[in-house]
């Protein structure tokens, strides 16, 4: 067989395998798609240093980058399977079988798939083997070229159909049917002058579209509200299970809360603020009857992610949230329900697609990131960021330096700015919304033309001023003063 044709048998067999798996997954749940399941397994098995490197290298594009990288590797293997089978189909068959079994293993070990999900990788394996052997046999025939093209076309159509069907698994319909979630207790309106968006800070409330997103989920869990429930168990007197209706029928509270990611570098973007509506975690836990000796709330997501929060903190503070900025949660931010706890970094508190609350101890259970090198206890560090001017920007006229500061749940008391290592000057603060939300600041300066470096530091209401020492995010959040160098013309 000619090398080009041999490589094509492998590539078309791969296409058919992926398409058959994806199309089957559209019916049994998209996470069962072997391609996505293998990528998910890769994410879970990746050492955390590499994951951190991938997040900083690819930013929020780490998922498309991973999926593209996998496609390239698979294509190379498929071509190799074809090329090693130029005389006999056996080597290629063996390679396909090995990859098929790996896909099967990746799917059945996922926490978020049902029993029928094995059908998807089995369809993949069967389609891959059948198409490979079929094309291999046909390769010598005069009609083989047409046969190859038709098979490839069928595979692409089946794959696209799977993607379309799977993507509209009706979570959007379920969201649209939720209707009004007006809270009984509304968050106070955001006062004017809470942000300096005109001077380059973010708006005080982040829109759902602009809200940062961090999670380990390659495919967003797509759970319909009516199929969702929250199980409260562990060290409680009365274990219970709440439905979405049970939660929405309670008195809903709305709070303006700033969410922060522990992996945010100094000056980084992983911080946003929204009005979250839900019920207080503490109320629900107290009704279940928390037993003495418990010190951790371990929350579990539909996709297997877990977060461990200090129990005393969540008894006082935090919501089981079902709405964000007046709308049901977007699927990427946890629909139908998630936790939001002011004062704790997201990885130890903010479980999206939450399905279980387990009252337990830190000794007995660990959240997802703890064995991966991150701290068990992770209160948010007092911090600040310069949003304007941008690094290496050119400004003219009077310079306004403006930014963001946060110290949930202590609140921000003061932000200072210094230029070129000179004396610290107090910045003007935006309106104080609440201690669980960020605070904006700005300062107007007369600077000589030339290059300048601005630095900022925040002091929280406990009197603590953020540390100058530059520390990486691992294990419990970055420290250091953000600095930006720019040129005045
Ligand atoms: N199910 C699930 N929930 C999760 C995570 C996750 O990986 N899976 N990541 C957490 C982390 S690290 C952060 S910072 C916040 C981010 O929430 P957001 O994506 O809505 O901004 O979600 C938390 N909840
Ligand atoms: Mo995070």
From TrEMBL:
Gene Ontology biological process: sulfur compound metabolic process
Keywords: Membrane, Signal, Transmembrane, Transmembrane helix
Coiled coil regions in record: none
Cited SUPFAM superfamilies: E set domains, Oxidoreductase molybdopterin-binding domain
Membrane-traversing stretches: 63-83, 90-108, 114-132, 148-166
Position of the signal peptide: 1-25
Residue ranges occupied by any Oxidoreductase molybdopterin-binding domain in the UniProt entry: 218-369
Molecular function via GO: heme binding; molybdopterin cofactor binding; sulfite oxidase activity
One Pfam family per UniProt: Oxidored_molyb
Protein name as it appears in the record: DMSO/TMAO reductase YedYZ, molybdopterin-dependent catalytic subunit
């Amino acid at each position: 067989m000619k090398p080009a044709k041999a490589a094509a048998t492998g590539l078309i067999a791969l296409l058919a395998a992926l398409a058959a798996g994806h199309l089957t997954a559209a019916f049994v749940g998209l996470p069962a798609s072997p391609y996505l399941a293998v990528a998910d397994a890769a994410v879970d098995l990746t050492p955390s240093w590499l994951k951190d490197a991938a997040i900083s290298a690819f930013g929020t594009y780490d998922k498309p980058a991973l999926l593209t990288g996998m496609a390239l590797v698979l294509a190379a293997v498929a071509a190799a399977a074809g090329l090693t089978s130029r005389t006999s189909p056996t080597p290629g068959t063996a390679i396909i079988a090995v990859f098929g079994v790996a896909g099967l293993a990746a799917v059945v070990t996922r926490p978020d798939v049902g029993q029928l999900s094995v059908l998807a990788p089995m369809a993949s394996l069967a389609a891959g083997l059948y198409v490979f052997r079929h094309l291999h046999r046909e390769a010598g025939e005069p009609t083989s070229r047409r046969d190859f093209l038709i098979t490839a076309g069928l595979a692409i159509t089946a794959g696209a159909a799977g993607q379309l069907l799977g993507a509209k698994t009706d979570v959007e319909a379920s969201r649209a049917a939720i209707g009004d979630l007006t809270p009984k207790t509304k968050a106070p309106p955001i006062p004017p002058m809470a942000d300096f968006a005109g001077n380059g800070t973010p708006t005080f409330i982040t829109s759902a579209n602009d809200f940062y997103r961090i999670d380990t989920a390659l495919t967003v869990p797509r759970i319909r509200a009516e199929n969702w429930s929250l199980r409260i168990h562990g060290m409680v007197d009365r274990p219970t299970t709440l439905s979405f209706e049970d939660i929405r029928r309670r008195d809903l509270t709305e709070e303006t809360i700033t969410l922060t990611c522990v992996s945010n570098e100094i000056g980084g973007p992983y911080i946003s603020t929204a009005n979250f509506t839900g019920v207080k975690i503490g109320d629900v836990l107290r009704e279940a009857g928390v037993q003495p000796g418990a010190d951790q709330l371990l929350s579990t997501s539909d996709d297997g992610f877990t977060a461990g929060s200090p129990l005393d903190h969540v008894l006082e503070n935090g919501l089981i949230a079902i709405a964000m900025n007046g709308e049901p949660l977007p699927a990427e931010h946890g629909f139908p329900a998630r936790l939001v706890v002011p004062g704790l970094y997201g990885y130890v508190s903010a479980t999206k697609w939450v399905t279980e609350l387990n009252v337990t101890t830190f000794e007995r259970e660990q959240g997802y990131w703890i064995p991966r090198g991150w701290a068990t206890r992770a209160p948010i560090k007092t911090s600040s960021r310069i949003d304007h001017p941008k690094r290496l920007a050119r400004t003219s006229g009077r310079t306004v330096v403006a930014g963001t500061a946060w110290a949930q749940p202590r609140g921000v008391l003061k932000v200072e700015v210094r230029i070129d290592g000179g004396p610290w000057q107090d910045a003007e603060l935006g309106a104080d919304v609440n201690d669980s939300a960020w605070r904006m600041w700005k300062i107007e300066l007369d600077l000589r033309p030339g290059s300048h470096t601005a630095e900022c530091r925040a002091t929280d209401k406990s009197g603590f001023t953020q540390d100058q020492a530059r520390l990486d995010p691992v294990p419990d959040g970055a420290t250091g003063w953000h600095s930006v160098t720019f040129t005045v013309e």
